[in-house]
């Protein structure tokens, strides 16, 4: 809103109407404010005793002071408006500070993000080792750096396409903060803001224009958009900078030779990130706005204010940045441009210059014509594609694993080009997945075409890869095409995670070895494939399939290999809706891996019957983490669903063979339970921590209250095993149980393998978001005491109103219409919880006969210090209330002396 | 802390004098209602934070004076508004007819992307109704906006109206982001260009109409 100090200054001027609006018909149509009065006027004025000289407009209706200037604004009114404007000013400043704080935090985050984003996590510096056991990498869709996906990134839904994408925390934040929270999305301009410390509020000059890879290129992008030709001012570095990021071969190079290729990259990444988006913020006001301002001549001041307000001062804008008109591009999603223009992921033009020495070529990046960029969409999607499937199958993991094997299988060069291919492959498969199936053929053609270009240079690789490639060899490719994504996805199970990196060349042996090891365990991994996966896990079906679900807790250890796949197949068929993209991308992962065993893979895949086998091979040949389900250990627990009490009791027994996360070779495991979908904080239950063990025995019961039948149908229990660290925790594995599979009132035993993290599916259903929580209320009328007793027992899954995500809930209970002071009562405040246990009895003295007319209002509030308490939700019990609320009230009235307890869903507007 | 919020949306209520803009706002922000008519002076605003899809959205709702004499002040606030509610009174034909003028006003002064909504207020006074629901609906279709009949007195549809508007804005925000992100490819960029071009055209068009009006009057 246009409301700035100048406004206040100018307001009085504003109130003076422009002369032409003054009324001039009184005296001879003159435009002059001050005229000599006519006789008639003098006569009239004389009667009024108001002097001889008059202001024309004022004289217009001398009899009615109020009507003197119908269009003017009186002093009192001015005063009032001024007050409003002051309030606005205040709130505007608060808002500026808020944005400033957020921007500041983002800047700090960027400053800390000094990892190179290639071999080390951009944010936390964790090295993506060969073994990759510590953290698995994923590429940020926006800035194209690798970060570890456990802590440093988030998976989110691309709003436009609805796909899942992976963003590093910085990019996710800048999308959120710079774009949405600041309001820039609307104003097309970063609004003014005040950084917490004054020093920081001096933006502009301090940050090099080339700043952050994302933004810099984005700036480029926008410049280009405005100017027909690419600006000569664009520093080369801009174009070169993003390069390394999209050149995954670096990763490999690094790992294999530990050359410090990174030098360049590091510096670039550093400057990129440190620089933050400050420059980007400084923009000219959009021309549109200026025009607008001109147009509104009578509003000049306001308009000026508006544009000032909306746009930043121009002074500090560098030539380059001033040219970039649309902040939308420049700030909000800085890195999106990256892909737009970096040409990096655009595989086709790059290849020729690329192959053996990966002499990072900025050449095409700078001024590639559209043509060259046409591949970008795909290119972009490569990454998003890979990332998408990625939580389970980190990109880096894949590349690393390939590269780690490379020395054995082929020369560096080969490996590199193979990698390129795999990338490219994923590109294509991605595109394929985006389009309808028929298109796949063309994609294949294209892909093989481009592959050939590589092939010429490194024939050997081509052949070796081709054996397994989805795209290349006609027989295989066709076959797979026929087989549909299902199989491909199945194959992709292989891409589990980066846990172990096998180094043996004979992966067949590895497979066998692993298989036997697993079989040797008490619980066979075969169990994993037996039962169908949960509905909620559809998206990650491939991986999820790997885990046993409810029904088969303890499968026979001798389960044959051949048994598994059909089962799995079935279960996959069940999940008809499974998104193809992930699967195809995963296929490419698989391909990259299986390239090592062309002979092994190619032939089995050719026949459908053999698919399971090849699948198995593929899965293990990926040197990497054993997708075998047993590798994360297993967990044993019992669940009892008590239908009457609406409780779910989870009895944690023990876990076995957990991963060691601490240096001492042990972990400090504890278990977190969640109900999904649902607020993570509201449904979290945490077990105690057993220290220094890989086979913890908790023997602990955790109870969920207020689980309604509807919840049971809809929700899934997520059991996560974590390693407690001094700061934070490491993920050890998780498993899920759909509540609907639980029988009522009997103990159900589970012994499940742990899986890798499965991102929670963001369920954006209305119903879910509207949930405010539930309360357990008991009501009884006692005739002897003439009182109504309200038992406020507990709340469950309340909405977190505070910044911490928790609330400090208490209840206000009132019996309306209120006839006595005692008819308004409160419970105690339960600090920092979303599942409070009040257990309070509130007596209301009220004649029994009044009861039907009364209404019991229960409102749950979040107690805040220093501000108004937040309303979490409420319920109303009355005879006319619907559902259980009315039922309970009527029961209470009909059966005095008896207590009726119900769980009630809180509502916002009751 | 209770004060935090994720997004700040600025909404604006416009419409003829006496249609109940202030009442609608008070009902929404304070859940109060006052039968007597107190003309708004210039501008005023209220704040309410709502929860939408798990996001806290602070709505800064601007209430404008419907009276002509404040027009210069009120129009200054159009530009910053992300959502505008056009309010008319179902018992007042003139206020309904004037919606057209208000829309023109918006086109002239407000941002291109502003989310609009038409509200027929005082739907509790069914007996004095002169503007049928259908006409309101028709008008809203004509302008491609959402439409609701509300009653600030009975608190009917008030929340819904604001929530709907907020949701629309939020949707636009998220889509907008998608668009920017989608600029990755060439096609994306062209799209962007074309939207800009389209906007430019619109501007021209608007100016054109503006001129015509000017001449006509």
From TrEMBL, chain A:
GO molecular function: small GTPase binding; zinc ion binding
InterPro entries reported for this sequence: C2_dom, C2_domain_sf, FYVE_2, Rab_BD, Rabphilin/DOC2/Noc2, Rabphilin_Doc2_C2A, Synaptotagmin, Znf_FYVE-rel
Region of interest: Disordered: 198-379, 413-506, 523-582, 607-630
Biased composition (Basic and acidic residues): 370-379, 428-448, 480-490
UniProt feature coiled coil, ranges: 74-112
Location(s) in or outside the cell: Synapse
Compositionally biased residues, Low complexity: 307-332, 460-471
UniProt xrefs under Gene3D superfamilies: C2 domain, Zinc/RING finger domain, C3HC4 (zinc finger)
Keywords: Calcium, Coiled coil, Metal-binding, Repeat, Synapse, Zinc, Zinc-finger
Predominant cellular place of this UniProt entry's protein: other
Ranges where the RabBD domain occurs: 67-189
Protein name: Rabphilin
Lineage: Eukaryota, Metazoa, Ecdysozoa, Nematoda, Chromadorea
TrEMBL record, chain B:
An annotated Gene Ontology molecular function: GTPase activity
UniProt xrefs under Gene3D superfamilies: P-loop containing nucleotide triphosphate hydrolases (3.40.50.300)
Protein origin, superkingdom: Eukaryota
Keyword annotations from UniProtKB, A to Z: GTP-binding, Lipoprotein, Membrane, Nucleotide-binding, Prenylation
Subcellular location as annotated: Endomembrane system
The keyword Nucleotide-binding belongs to this UniProt entry's keyword annotation: yes
Alphabetized InterPro entries for the sequence: P-loop_NTPase, Small_GTP-bd, Small_GTPase, Small_GTPase_Rab
Recorded topology in the membrane: Lipid-anchor
One Gene Ontology cellular component annotation held by this UniProt entry: cytoplasm
Family: Belongs to the small GTPase superfamily. Rab family.
NCBIfam families: small_GTP
Xref: PANTHER family: LD44762P
Name under which the protein is recorded: Ras-related protein Rab-8A
Organism phylogeny: Eukaryota, Metazoa, Ecdysozoa, Nematoda, Chromadorea
